[in-house]
Design a protein that fits this description.
CATH topology of one domain: ABC transporter transmembrane region fold
Strand content: under 5%
Structural class: mainly alpha
Number of helices: 9
Largest sheet: none
Low-confidence stretches: 31-38
CATH class of one domain: Mainly Alpha
Mean pLDDT: 75
Number of strands: 0
Order of helices and strands: HHHHHHHHH
Length: 249
Protein backbone atom coordinates (compact mmCIF):
# COMPACT_ATOMS: atom_id res chain seq x y z
CA UNK A 1 0.00 0.00 0.00
CA UNK A 2 2.90 2.32 0.66
CA UNK A 3 3.97 2.16 -3.00
CA UNK A 4 0.55 3.04 -4.39
CA UNK A 5 0.47 6.33 -6.26
CA UNK A 6 -1.81 8.76 -4.35
CA UNK A 7 -3.17 10.14 -7.62
CA UNK A 8 -4.23 6.66 -8.73
CA UNK A 9 -5.91 6.04 -5.38
CA UNK A 10 -7.81 9.33 -5.54
CA UNK A 11 -8.77 8.67 -9.16
CA UNK A 12 -10.09 5.22 -8.23
CA UNK A 13 -12.21 6.61 -5.40
CA UNK A 14 -13.60 9.36 -7.66
CA UNK A 15 -14.31 6.81 -10.39
CA UNK A 16 -16.25 4.52 -8.01
CA UNK A 17 -18.29 7.42 -6.63
CA UNK A 18 -18.97 8.65 -10.18
CA UNK A 19 -20.16 5.22 -11.26
CA UNK A 20 -22.53 5.02 -8.29
CA UNK A 21 -23.95 8.48 -9.02
CA UNK A 22 -24.42 7.68 -12.70
CA UNK A 23 -26.27 4.48 -11.74
CA UNK A 24 -28.51 6.38 -9.30
CA UNK A 25 -29.16 9.06 -11.91
CA UNK A 26 -30.15 6.42 -14.47
CA UNK A 27 -32.51 4.63 -12.08
CA UNK A 28 -34.40 7.75 -10.99
CA UNK A 29 -37.11 8.79 -13.41
CA UNK A 30 -38.19 12.37 -13.80
CA UNK A 31 -41.85 12.27 -12.75
CA UNK A 32 -42.95 15.69 -13.88
CA UNK A 33 -46.63 14.83 -13.96
CA UNK A 34 -46.75 13.90 -10.28
CA UNK A 35 -45.13 17.20 -9.32
CA UNK A 36 -47.47 19.34 -11.38
CA UNK A 37 -44.90 20.23 -14.06
CA UNK A 38 -46.39 18.96 -17.30
CA UNK A 39 -43.98 20.87 -19.52
CA UNK A 40 -44.04 20.57 -23.29
CA UNK A 41 -41.49 23.34 -23.91
CA UNK A 42 -37.80 22.48 -23.94
CA UNK A 43 -35.07 24.51 -22.24
CA UNK A 44 -33.87 26.06 -25.50
CA UNK A 45 -37.27 27.55 -26.22
CA UNK A 46 -37.50 28.96 -22.70
CA UNK A 47 -34.09 30.60 -22.99
CA UNK A 48 -35.01 32.01 -26.39
CA UNK A 49 -38.12 33.64 -24.96
CA UNK A 50 -36.21 35.06 -21.99
CA UNK A 51 -33.53 36.39 -24.35
CA UNK A 52 -36.28 38.35 -26.11
CA UNK A 53 -36.87 40.34 -22.91
CA UNK A 54 -33.14 41.07 -22.56
CA UNK A 55 -32.64 42.05 -26.20
CA UNK A 56 -33.72 45.74 -25.79
CA UNK A 57 -30.99 46.18 -23.15
CA UNK A 58 -28.13 44.52 -25.04
CA UNK A 59 -26.01 47.70 -24.95
CA UNK A 60 -26.03 47.72 -21.16
CA UNK A 61 -25.11 44.06 -21.06
CA UNK A 62 -22.13 44.88 -23.29
CA UNK A 63 -21.09 47.59 -20.81
CA UNK A 64 -21.42 45.08 -17.97
CA UNK A 65 -19.27 42.60 -19.89
CA UNK A 66 -16.64 45.29 -20.42
CA UNK A 67 -16.64 46.15 -16.69
CA UNK A 68 -16.52 42.48 -15.80
CA UNK A 69 -13.23 42.10 -17.66
CA UNK A 70 -11.53 44.34 -15.09
CA UNK A 71 -12.72 42.26 -12.15
CA UNK A 72 -11.62 39.12 -14.01
CA UNK A 73 -8.21 40.68 -14.61
CA UNK A 74 -7.94 41.46 -10.90
CA UNK A 75 -8.76 37.86 -9.93
CA UNK A 76 -6.03 36.61 -12.25
CA UNK A 77 -3.36 39.28 -11.74
CA UNK A 78 -3.65 39.80 -7.97
CA UNK A 79 -2.09 36.43 -6.99
CA UNK A 80 0.80 37.12 -9.37
CA UNK A 81 1.36 40.59 -7.85
CA UNK A 82 1.23 39.18 -4.31
CA UNK A 83 3.69 36.45 -5.26
CA UNK A 84 6.06 39.00 -6.76
CA UNK A 85 5.86 41.11 -3.60
CA UNK A 86 6.60 38.08 -1.42
CA UNK A 87 9.65 37.24 -3.50
CA UNK A 88 10.77 40.85 -3.29
CA UNK A 89 10.42 40.98 0.51
CA UNK A 90 12.14 37.63 1.05
CA UNK A 91 15.46 39.01 -0.25
CA UNK A 92 17.25 42.30 -0.33
CA UNK A 93 15.04 44.98 -1.80
CA UNK A 94 14.71 48.71 -2.14
CA UNK A 95 11.79 50.53 -0.56
CA UNK A 96 10.80 52.40 -3.75
CA UNK A 97 10.29 49.08 -5.53
CA UNK A 98 8.15 47.77 -2.68
CA UNK A 99 6.08 50.97 -2.59
CA UNK A 100 5.62 50.78 -6.35
CA UNK A 101 4.42 47.16 -6.15
CA UNK A 102 1.98 47.95 -3.33
CA UNK A 103 0.71 51.00 -5.24
CA UNK A 104 0.08 48.86 -8.33
CA UNK A 105 -1.79 46.28 -6.26
CA UNK A 106 -3.87 48.96 -4.51
CA UNK A 107 -4.69 50.62 -7.83
CA UNK A 108 -5.82 47.35 -9.39
CA UNK A 109 -7.92 46.59 -6.30
CA UNK A 110 -9.64 50.01 -6.28
CA UNK A 111 -10.32 49.85 -10.00
CA UNK A 112 -11.77 46.36 -9.65
CA UNK A 113 -14.04 47.45 -6.78
CA UNK A 114 -15.30 50.43 -8.78
CA UNK A 115 -16.04 48.28 -11.84
CA UNK A 116 -17.85 45.74 -9.66
CA UNK A 117 -19.97 48.50 -8.12
CA UNK A 118 -21.06 49.98 -11.45
CA UNK A 119 -21.64 46.50 -12.80
CA UNK A 120 -24.01 45.69 -9.91
CA UNK A 121 -25.89 48.97 -10.30
CA UNK A 122 -26.42 48.50 -14.04
CA UNK A 123 -27.50 44.89 -13.62
CA UNK A 124 -30.02 45.71 -10.90
CA UNK A 125 -31.62 48.42 -13.02
CA UNK A 126 -31.74 46.25 -16.12
CA UNK A 127 -33.07 43.29 -14.13
CA UNK A 128 -35.89 45.35 -12.63
CA UNK A 129 -36.89 46.65 -16.06
CA UNK A 130 -36.91 43.15 -17.52
CA UNK A 131 -39.05 41.86 -14.65
CA UNK A 132 -41.40 44.82 -15.08
CA UNK A 133 -41.87 43.93 -18.76
CA UNK A 134 -42.34 40.27 -17.90
CA UNK A 135 -44.94 40.97 -15.22
CA UNK A 136 -46.87 43.26 -17.54
CA UNK A 137 -47.03 40.47 -20.12
CA UNK A 138 -48.10 38.01 -17.42
CA UNK A 139 -50.82 40.36 -16.22
CA UNK A 140 -52.08 40.79 -19.79
CA UNK A 141 -52.05 37.02 -20.28
CA UNK A 142 -53.96 36.37 -17.05
CA UNK A 143 -56.56 38.96 -18.00
CA UNK A 144 -57.02 37.24 -21.38
CA UNK A 145 -57.91 33.91 -19.75
CA UNK A 146 -61.53 32.84 -19.78
CA UNK A 147 -63.67 32.64 -16.63
CA UNK A 148 -63.61 28.85 -16.80
CA UNK A 149 -59.79 28.81 -16.78
CA UNK A 150 -59.61 31.30 -13.90
CA UNK A 151 -62.04 29.17 -11.88
CA UNK A 152 -59.91 26.07 -12.43
CA UNK A 153 -56.62 27.75 -11.41
CA UNK A 154 -56.36 28.62 -7.68
CA UNK A 155 -55.61 32.24 -6.86
CA UNK A 156 -52.65 31.30 -4.66
CA UNK A 157 -51.03 29.44 -7.54
CA UNK A 158 -51.33 32.46 -9.82
CA UNK A 159 -49.89 34.79 -7.18
CA UNK A 160 -46.98 32.45 -6.45
CA UNK A 161 -46.08 32.02 -10.11
CA UNK A 162 -46.25 35.73 -10.86
CA UNK A 163 -44.20 36.80 -7.82
CA UNK A 164 -41.74 34.04 -6.92
CA UNK A 165 -40.93 32.77 -10.40
CA UNK A 166 -40.35 36.25 -11.79
CA UNK A 167 -38.02 37.00 -8.87
CA UNK A 168 -36.03 33.88 -9.74
CA UNK A 169 -35.77 35.08 -13.36
CA UNK A 170 -34.64 38.50 -12.11
CA UNK A 171 -31.86 36.81 -10.11
CA UNK A 172 -30.82 34.96 -13.25
CA UNK A 173 -30.35 38.20 -15.20
CA UNK A 174 -28.75 40.21 -12.38
CA UNK A 175 -26.52 37.60 -10.78
CA UNK A 176 -26.33 34.10 -12.21
CA UNK A 177 -25.46 34.88 -15.83
CA UNK A 178 -22.75 37.37 -14.92
CA UNK A 179 -21.29 35.09 -12.25
CA UNK A 180 -21.28 32.14 -14.65
CA UNK A 181 -19.58 34.15 -17.41
CA UNK A 182 -17.05 35.61 -14.97
CA UNK A 183 -16.18 32.20 -13.52
CA UNK A 184 -15.65 30.76 -17.01
CA UNK A 185 -13.19 33.52 -17.94
CA UNK A 186 -11.44 33.28 -14.55
CA UNK A 187 -11.01 29.51 -14.93
CA UNK A 188 -9.61 29.94 -18.44
CA UNK A 189 -7.22 32.66 -17.25
CA UNK A 190 -6.04 30.59 -14.28
CA UNK A 191 -5.57 27.62 -16.60
CA UNK A 192 -3.37 29.67 -18.93
CA UNK A 193 -1.35 30.93 -15.94
CA UNK A 194 -0.93 27.38 -14.60
CA UNK A 195 0.23 26.13 -17.99
CA UNK A 196 2.77 28.93 -18.13
CA UNK A 197 4.09 28.14 -14.66
CA UNK A 198 4.12 24.31 -14.75
CA UNK A 199 2.43 22.53 -17.63
CA UNK A 200 3.14 19.00 -16.30
CA UNK A 201 1.34 19.61 -13.00
CA UNK A 202 -1.46 21.39 -14.86
CA UNK A 203 -2.04 18.42 -17.18
CA UNK A 204 -2.09 16.13 -14.14
CA UNK A 205 -4.78 18.29 -12.51
CA UNK A 206 -6.82 18.37 -15.73
CA UNK A 207 -7.16 14.58 -15.58
CA UNK A 208 -9.89 15.08 -12.96
CA UNK A 209 -11.92 17.49 -15.09
CA UNK A 210 -14.10 14.73 -16.67
CA UNK A 211 -15.13 13.56 -13.21
CA UNK A 212 -16.05 17.12 -12.24
CA UNK A 213 -18.17 17.47 -15.39
CA UNK A 214 -19.99 14.23 -14.60
CA UNK A 215 -20.62 15.36 -11.01
CA UNK A 216 -21.99 18.67 -12.32
CA UNK A 217 -24.41 17.01 -14.74
CA UNK A 218 -25.67 14.59 -12.10
CA UNK A 219 -26.00 17.31 -9.48
CA UNK A 220 -27.95 19.43 -11.97
CA UNK A 221 -30.56 16.70 -12.36
CA UNK A 222 -31.05 16.12 -8.64
CA UNK A 223 -30.99 19.84 -7.88
CA UNK A 224 -33.59 20.53 -10.56
CA UNK A 225 -35.93 17.90 -9.16
CA UNK A 226 -35.54 19.25 -5.63
CA UNK A 227 -36.12 22.84 -6.78
CA UNK A 228 -39.29 21.87 -8.61
CA UNK A 229 -40.59 20.03 -5.57
CA UNK A 230 -39.94 23.08 -3.38
CA UNK A 231 -41.70 25.36 -5.88
CA UNK A 232 -44.66 23.02 -6.13
CA UNK A 233 -44.92 22.74 -2.33
CA UNK A 234 -44.72 26.54 -1.96
CA UNK A 235 -47.53 26.90 -4.49
CA UNK A 236 -49.71 24.41 -2.62
CA UNK A 237 -49.11 26.20 0.69
CA UNK A 238 -49.97 29.61 -0.71
CA UNK A 239 -53.03 28.18 -2.45
CA UNK A 240 -54.26 26.51 0.74
CA UNK A 241 -53.72 29.63 2.86
CA UNK A 242 -55.32 31.93 0.29
CA UNK A 243 -58.44 29.84 -0.13
CA UNK A 244 -58.92 29.07 3.56
CA UNK A 245 -58.27 32.61 4.76
CA UNK A 246 -60.67 33.93 2.14
CA UNK A 247 -63.24 31.40 3.31
CA UNK A 248 -62.78 32.44 6.96
CA UNK A 249 -63.32 36.06 6.02
Amino acid sequence: MANVNPLLLVGAVIGVVTALLVLACALIKDKKETMGFERTMNDGEILRRLAGYAKPYWAKFVVVLFLMLFSIAYDIISPLIVGALEELVSGEFELPRLFAGVAVYAGVLVFSMASTYFQAVILQRVGQRIISDLREDLFTHIESLSHEQLNEIPVGKLVTRVTNDTNAISMMFTNLLVTLTKNIFVILGILVAMLALNYELTLMVLCFVPFIVIFTVIFRKFSRRAYRKVKDATTDINTYLSENLSGIK
